[in-house]
């Protein structure tokens, strides 16, 4: 029996999962595994947890959903905890696996982990193959090589829209041949040195992890309510669940793929018509692609103070008090405070809020942007390393922005987007 391991990471789905499809086609049986990587639960050099409580709760819900769906096909999910290079090697030895299949990474730390795993597997004469499963456009279909990708989004978008096509999705497998997989044993929050935090009842949306929930949200936002047809007008909202698609948390863990969203959107457009709003969702998915390809191109530079803009002088200031006041929503700027309290108590913040609090952190407080990005990494349910660090670098003026100074006038923004103060009243009146 040819046994292969499918190492799930941030691709927690059965629909449109090339890694899973290729593993099934090349082996007699597979072992789906997920490893809680010890390094994901440490405190970073910026003083924040790499993964906070809200994100872990969403992750465990997503894994339980994946396990349930795999079991319905005759398989299941084997849960590991430790260093992936050690734990996956143990499973390879135990079951004499000939190959490990995994999602291809692009960000610096994730690439390092991937290389450590590959090195250990090489010693065991076990192959390691990765697949690009996270983007709307496949890296191989780009009209330029990675090193030649334009650093300005508009140039990237125009060329890609003109010269590239989006691939079809991979069907969900009908059956998965596996070894007998024991009931999944998930680490507790205590095991991960985290405390349970209940999500505040004022949350814009109560996210629940998993592919089933992702599909439910898509059906609701597209076909049941047709909210997608007014997305461009409402996307800068601050209160409630429907001003934006809210797909980001499921996209971050790969519970749904951007290509699946795209093809469902095309079905929607053929039934109900295309407009600026339906296009705008594709535009946002393109931004997501852009940041992933930037990380592939610039690698560790995206995490350095000067980013890809070595000319720019970066504030070296580290004021624990200023950072803590920002985290706690105690800056005396009511619009900033309301957004930061929402993030602290729910693990979510609107796109408009994120841009404002990041601009305030970099331009008004004049602090090292990486501390802000690191807090977001800990706190956001929808944390995605490329979008998070890419957007922070962009707002700090060291990323992909041709403009010299991306400064937000907080008072003007608050008046524009929270005219009646309903958002501020919601979060500032305890």
Q: Can you lay out the helices and strands and say which pair or pack?
A:
Elements: E1 3-8, H1 18-26, E2 29-37, H2 53-71, E3 78-82, H3 84-95, E4 99-103, H4 108-123, E5 127-131, H5 153-163, H6 211-224, H7 231-234, H8 248-252, H9 258-272, H10 276-298, H11 320-328, H12 334-346, H13 351-364, H14 369-379, H15 385-396, H16 410-417, H17 422-428
Parallel strand pairs: 1-2, 1-4, 2-3, 4-5
| CATH architecture tag of the largest domain | 3-Layer(aba) Sandwich
CATH class of the largest domain: Alpha Beta
Secondary-structure-derived class? alpha/beta
Oligomer: single chain
Count of discrete alpha- or pi-helical segments spanning 4 or more residues: 17
Mean pLDDT: 95
Strand proportion? 5-15%
CATH topology of the largest domain: Rossmann fold
Q: Sheet bearing the most strands, described?
A: 5 strands, parallel
| Share of helix, binned | 40-55%
SSE sequence, one letter per element:
EHEHEHEHEHHHHHHHHHHHHH
Q: Superfamily at the CATH H level of the largest domain?
A: HUPs
The span between the termini is 61 Å
Walk me through what this model shows:
This protein is α/β, with parallel strands linked by helices and 430 residues long. The protein folds into 3 domains: 1-133, HUPs (Rossmann fold, 3-Layer(aba) Sandwich), CATH 3.40.50; 134-166 and 211-299, Serine Threonine Protein Phosphatase 5, Tetratricopeptide repeat (Alpha Horseshoe); 304-428, DNA Cyclobutane Dipyrimidine Photolyase, subunit A, domain 3, CATH 1.10.579. It contains 17 helices and 5 strands. Strands 3-2-1-4-5 form a 5-stranded parallel sheet, with helices on both faces. Helix 10 (276-298) crosses helix 15 (385-396). It is globular and about 65 Å long. The protein starts with a strand and ends with a helix. The model has no long low-confidence stretch (mean pLDDT 95). May have a photoreceptor function. InterPro entries: Cry_DASH, Crypto/Photolyase_FAD-like_sf, Crypto/Photolyase_N_sf, Cryptochr/Photolyase_FAD-bd, Cryptochrome/DNA_photolyase_1, DNA_photolyase_N, Rossmann-like_a/b/a_fold. One of its GO terms (biological process) is photoreactive repair.
């Amino acid at each position: 029996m040819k046994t292969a391991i499918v190492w799930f990471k941030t691709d927690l789905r059965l629909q449109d999962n090339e890694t899973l499809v290729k593993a099934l086609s090349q082996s007699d049986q597979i072992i789906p595994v997920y490893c809680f990587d010890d390094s994901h639960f440490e405190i970073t050099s910026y003083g924040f947890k790499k993964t906070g409580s809200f994100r872990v709760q969403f992750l465990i819900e997503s894994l339980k959903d994946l396990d349930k769906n795999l079991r319905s096909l005759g398989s299941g999910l084997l849960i590991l905890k430790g260093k992936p290079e050690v734990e996956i090697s143990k499973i390879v030895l135990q079951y004499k696996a000939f190959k490990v299949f995994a999602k291809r990474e692009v960000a610096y730390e994730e690439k390092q982990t991937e290389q450590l795993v590959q090195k250990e597997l090489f010693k065991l004469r076990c192959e390691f193959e990765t697949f690009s499963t996270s983007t709307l456009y496949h890296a191989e279909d780009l009209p330029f090589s990675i090193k030649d990708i334009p650093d300005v989004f508009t140039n990237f978008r125009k060329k890609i829209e003109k010269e590239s096509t989006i691939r079809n999705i991979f069907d969900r497998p009908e059956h998965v041949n596996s070894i007998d997989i024991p009931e999944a044993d998930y680490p507790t929050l205590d095991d991960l040195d985290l405390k349970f935090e209940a999500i505040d009842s004022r949350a814009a949306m109560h996210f629940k992890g998993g592919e089933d929930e992702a599909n439910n949200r898509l059906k609701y936002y597209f076909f049941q309510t047709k909210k997608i047809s007014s997305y461009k007008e409402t996307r800068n909202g601050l209160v409630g669940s429907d001003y934006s698609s809210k797909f980001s948390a499921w996209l971050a863990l790969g519970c749904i793929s951007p290509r699946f969203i795209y093809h469902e959107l095309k079905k929607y457009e053929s039934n109900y018509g295309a407009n600026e709003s339906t296009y705008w969702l594709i535009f946002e998915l393109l931004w997501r692609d852009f940041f992933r390809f930037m990380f592939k191109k610039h690698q560790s530079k995206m995490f350095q103070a000067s980013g890809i803009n070595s000319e720019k002088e970066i504030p070296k200031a580290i004021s624990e008090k200023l950072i803590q006041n920002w985290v706690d929503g105690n800056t005396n700027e009511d619009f900033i405070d309301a957004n930061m309290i929402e993030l602290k108590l729910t693990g979510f913040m609107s796109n408009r809020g994120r841009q404002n609090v990041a601009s305030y952190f970099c331009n008004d407080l004049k602090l090292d942007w990486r501390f802000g990005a690191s807090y977001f990494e800990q706190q956001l349910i929808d944390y995605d390393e490329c979008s998070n660090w890419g957007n922070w670098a962009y707002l700090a003026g060291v990323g992909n922005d041709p403009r010299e100074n991306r400064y937000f006038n907080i008072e003007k923004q608050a008046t524009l987007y929270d005219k009646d103060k309903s958002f501020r009243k919601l979060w500032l009146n305890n």
